[in-house]
């Protein structure tokens, strides 16, 4: 089942994690052969759009972020156009039980449209496909850090189709016809012979998955006489690379720190991100600090500033004044810092990661170390940071005094 599986695990229910996936997970098959670039591209586009799949008809991501996240560091827009064209020309087909237990079949192009304009990629899914893609029962998490390690589209497809069964330990039996479809080689007569399929797809795919990813897979064959009729893969976690797997959030959500963040109005994703980045002890310490300040109108926003800039910067050189009512007018530098902080906070997690990587590629030595330590608040990189955000948003600093 060619899946788009880079969806956060917090979207999955506890019963799905426990293995009820066998009965309830639907299948979305992709016809035709997707290249490695196209497969990675489809995953990143879906990750970028996932939170608003059913509430927005179109989605946007800047093109350089898109290229970076798929590991394509090039200004060759023709290649990106060709990959987007391929997704628009590729058919997705589903065959599943709906909420009432009725069988439902459907078909749609992977992308309803895509366009590149002024450095922005805008795209859309058909309403029917968007609804299916947003169903949390369909997907498991695929870490983009793992995805970028793959060099073969067939191996990535094999990983995607096996990883969703990691909790159950086996894919179950697939007919060879279905397996060829999942690997995108159903239209090639060369792979009708199992020896070719095994030599070119199965063996190298298994080797790359086991070498590259956070799971170990073992193929088993089903035979009728001497003829191979089916295949399944046994799946175990790869202890050497399990660190690449993202926290599913279950442990974090049971903590008091997480609960306090949520009561402050911090979103689920941001609460888990802060705890992962800063550590539960530091987040708790800063929350206690914020709760002890008077005149704070927006505790969540103030906490974000304290975590990102430190207590002194957040309170005006150490004075505990309300961040909404500073004791003196902000300097131009301080206004620029606030604008940068707001711009960075408004980006999606995917875009924030890409922004940092893109900026880090511009600096070296002490400047790079200072940015790694202080992020967008790095004083040593002030001018470069301003130029970077002015390139992303040309009117970013208009109106500052």
TrEMBL record:
> Pfam families from the entry?
Rep3_C, Rep3_N
Q: Where is the Initiator Rep protein WH1 domain?
A: 21-162
Q: What is stated as this protein's family in its record?
A: Belongs to the initiator RepB protein family.
Tell me what this protein is called.
Replication initiation protein
| Source organism of the structure | Pseudogemmobacter faecipullorum
């Amino acid at each position: 089942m060619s899946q788009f599986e880079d969806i956060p695990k917090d979207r999955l229910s506890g019963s799905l994690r426990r293995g009820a996936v066998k009965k309830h997970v639907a299948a979305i098959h992709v016809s035709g052969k997707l290249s490695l670039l196209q497969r990675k591209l489809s995953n990143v586009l879906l990750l970028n759009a996932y939170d608003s799949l059913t509430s927005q008809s179109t989605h946007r991501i800047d093109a350089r972020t898109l290229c970076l996240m798929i590991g394509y560091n090039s200004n060759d827009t023709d290649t990106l156009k060709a990959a987007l064209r391929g997704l628009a020309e590729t058919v997705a087909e589903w065959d599943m039980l709906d909420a009432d237990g009725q069988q439902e079949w459907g078909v749609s192009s992977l992308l309803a449209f895509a366009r590149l304009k002024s450095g922005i990629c805008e795209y859309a899914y058909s309403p029917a496909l968007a609804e299916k893609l947003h169903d949390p029962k369909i997907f498991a998490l695929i870490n983009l850090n793992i995805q970028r390690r793959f060099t073969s589209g067939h191996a990535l497809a094999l990983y995607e189709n096996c990883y969703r069964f990691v909790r159950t330990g086996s894919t179950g039996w697939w007919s060879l016809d279905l397996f060829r479809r999942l690997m995108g080689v159903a239209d090639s007569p060369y792979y009708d012979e199992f020896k070719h399929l095994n030599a070119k797809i199965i063996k190298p795919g298994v080797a790359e998955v086991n070498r590259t990813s956070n799971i170990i897979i073992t193929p088993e064959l089903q035979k009728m006489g001497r003829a191979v009729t089916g295949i399944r893969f046994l799946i175990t976690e790869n202890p050497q690379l399990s660190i690449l797997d993202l926290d599913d959030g279950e442990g974090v959500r049971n903590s008091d720190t997480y609960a306090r963040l949520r009561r402050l109005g911090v979103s689920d994703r941001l609460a888990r991100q802060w705890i992962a980045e800063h550590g539960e002890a530091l987040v708790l310490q800063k929350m206690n600090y914020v709760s002890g300040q008077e005149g704070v109108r927006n505790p969540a926003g103030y906490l974000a500033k304290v975590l990102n800039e430190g207590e002194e910067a957040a309170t005006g050189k150490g004075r505990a004044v309300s961040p909404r009512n500073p004791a003196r007018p902000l300097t131009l530098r301080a206004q620029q810092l606030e604008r940068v902080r707001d711009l960075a906070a408004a980006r999606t997690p995917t875009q924030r990661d890409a922004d940092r990587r893109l900026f880090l590629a511009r600096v070296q030595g002490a400047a790079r170390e200072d940015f790694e330590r202080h992020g967008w608040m790095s004083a040593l990189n002030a001018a470069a940071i301003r130029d970077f955000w002015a390139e992303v948003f040309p009117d970013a600093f208009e109106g500052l005094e």
